[in-house]
TrEMBL record:
Residues 6-107 form the CN hydrolase domain. InterPro entries: C-N_Hydrolase, C-N_Hydrolase_sf. Keywords: Hydrolase. SUPFAM superfamilies: Carbon-nitrogen hydrolase (SSF56317). This is Carbon-nitrogen hydrolase.
Length: 107
């Protein structure tokens, strides 16, 4: 946001139920397109990584946040954007529908 302006891309797609790898690939494509068009904040809806399937939340909840956060963080750095994405996280016995924010810290 070097010019002082915030350009926001709101992204929505039809996710594949429970297929986090395929859905991450869709995130990646949309994030790259948004960055090419000048966006510096790219926002996805809740459960965009797994598909909006509350009954699958138990199976798809991410226990180890590092791997997915690292993948999004690297993408944020490569594209020079901040990413907000919906992911299911597990905290103890609880499964949570969360948004994570990852940004290019070099900006």
């Amino acid at each position: 946001m070097s010019n002082g302006k915030l350009s926001i891309a709101l992204c929505q797609f039809h996710p594949s139920k429970g297929d986090m790898l395929a859905n991450f690939a869709k995130h990646k494509t949309l994030i790259e397109q948004a960055a090419e068009q000048g966006a510096n904040l790219v926002v996805f809806p809740e459960l965009s990584l797994t598909g909006y399937e509350p009954q699958l939340l138990k199976l798809n909840a991410i226990v180890e946040r590092g791997e997915i956060e690292n993948a999004f963080a690297e993408l944020a750095k490569e594209c020079g954007v901040t990413i907000i994405a919906g992911v299911p996280l597990q905290s103890g016995a609880n499964r949570l529908c969360c948004l994570i924010r990852l940004e290019d810290m070099a900006a």
